[in-house]
TrEMBL record:
Keywords: Coiled coil. Residues 5-105, 336-378 form a coiled coil. It comes from Phytophthora boehmeriae. The keyword Disulfide bond does not apply. InterPro entries: WW_dom. Residues 145-202 have a biased composition (Acidic residues). This is WW domain-containing protein.
Length: 429
């Protein structure tokens, strides 16, 4: 429990650091977007001012042109004013087009850069969601790892107890066989023949097959809502209760400062409180006792409710068919439940067998890999290092199972040397 909380603290610190980096990057991008928006607004305001000035100049030029035409219709002054007016009109058209493009949503050079920055912010949001998912999975994985380790320890203890019980049983059987041998010294051959015939008549015991029935009924027997028998493990419930209790304590720390949670878009994570190991152990033991009692009560309650619902459904379905039909139907129900239990047990056994095979294969692969490493010595410093004869990779520490494999190699070489010694053929005496 204490180690899990330490690992979670490390994970949360990394998560908080990554979130701070993402937040700093987001603020920087937002400042850039604001700067581009201000630059765009200033450019559009400058363009509007230019349009207003050109419109005023155009109105003045129109008045001057009209005056020149009134004085001299085809004079040089009227031609000059007309030419200037045409240039002003061209400038006005260009400025108005630029203003329309700038006022649109995706117009102007700043809009493209703003769109790129917004895409970068979306990428940061996606990275933040990935971080949240990662730390959530890591938290669940830590809890499952603790419970799996406890289950493995319990399995090892039960195996040791089972081995001791088997040894005791073997000793008792040996003692009983000795007594039976002493008592049956004066037995006759007829009794032996009878015992042999009885042994021949005894049917062979059925081997327990770990293969579950493959065919399961397509439609469920009961078409009603049944309570789920999958109850949360009491150890997980105890861990969650301890975490909730410590989070309540963490709301205000000893200095009176409010604890800052690690914020994310989807979920809030609070840094685990650093609690002394004795206090944590006492709190965990208290919670695990209460959660174990609650789990057992819930299991019994749901199982009883499920059986009563099944009985009521069977009675309602075959209430008018007599006692025999109800008994046969209930027998089918019990058989279906037994098949389901056998299937679950077989799946668990297959899982254990596969896990054992995987462990053995991993050990064999590690031993094969260890045989490829050779011990070397540095010619300058006399430092011992290890080199892979296949890839040339070097390391300072020997790989796993290296010493055992080297001892096996040495034994094989010694046996090979003994076998290769030629035998002397002496002449007959």
């Amino acid at each position: 429990m204490n180690q899990r909380r330490r690992r979670l603290r490390k994970l949360y610190k990394k998560h908080e650091k990554a979130l701070r980096q993402i937040e700093a990057r987001r603020e920087k991008l937002c400042r850039k977007i604001e700067a581009f928006q201000k630059a765009k607004a200033a450019r559009l305001q400058t363009t509007r001012d230019k349009c207003e000035r050109l419109e005023k100049d155009r109105a003045a030029l129109e008045r001057e042109r009209d005056t020149a035409i009134a004085k001299d219709k085809e004079g040089a002054l009227a031609a000059v004013k007309t030419k200037k007016l045409a240039k002003v009109d061209d400038k006005l058209v260009k400025l108005r087009e630029e203003l329309e493009i700038g006022e649109s949503e995706f117009g102007g050079p700043e809009s493209a850069k703003i769109a790129e920055l917004e895409l970068a912010i979306e990428g940061l949001d996606m990275a933040e969601r990935k971080l949240t998912t990662t730390i959530t999975k890591a938290k669940a994985r830590e809890m499952d790892a603790d419970i799996d380790e406890e289950e493995e320890d319990e399995d090892d203890d039960s195996e040791d107890d089972g081995d001791e019980d088997d040894d005791d049983k073997e000793e008792e059987e040996n003692v009983s066989e000795e007594h039976s041998d002493d008592d049956s010294d004066g037995g006759s051959d007829d009794e032996d023949a009878e015992s042999e015939s009885e042994e021949e008549n005894v049917p062979p015991e059925k081997e327990v097959s770990s293969v579950a029935p493959v065919e399961t009924p397509s439609n469920p027997f009961f078409q009603i809502a049944m309570p789920d028998l999958n109850i949360e493990d009491y150890r997980k419930a105890a861990v969650k209760a301890v975490d909730a209790e410590l989070e309540k304590r963490l709301t205000v720390d000893a200095k009176g400062k409010v604890a800052t949670p690690v914020d994310s878009t989807k979920q809030k994570f609070t840094m685990p409180l650093d609690v002394p190991e004795e206090e944590l152990l006492e709190l965990f033991q208290t919670q695990i006792r209460s959660s174990y009692v609650e789990m057992q009560c819930a299991k019994i309650s749901r199982k009883a409710t499920r059986e009563f619902l099944q009985m009521r459904e069977v009675l309602q379905r075959w209430s008018g068919l007599g006692t025999r039909a109800v008994f046969e139907a209930w027998h089918e129900v019990a058989r279906a439940n037994r098949l389901d239990a056998d299937a679950v047990k077989a799946r668990a056994e297959r899982k254990q067998v596969l896990e054992k095979q995987n462990r053995e294969l991993e050990e064999q692969l590690a031993r094969v890999e260890a045989r490829r490493w050779a011990q070397r010595s540095d010619m300058y410093t006399d430092a011992i290092y290890y080199e892979n004869e296949t890839t040339g990779e070097t390391r300072w520490e020997p790989p796993q199972y290296w010493e055992e494999e080297q001892s096996l190699k040495q034994k094989e070489r010694q046996s090979a040397r003994v076998d290769n010694v030629p035998l002397l053929k002496l002449p007959p005496i």
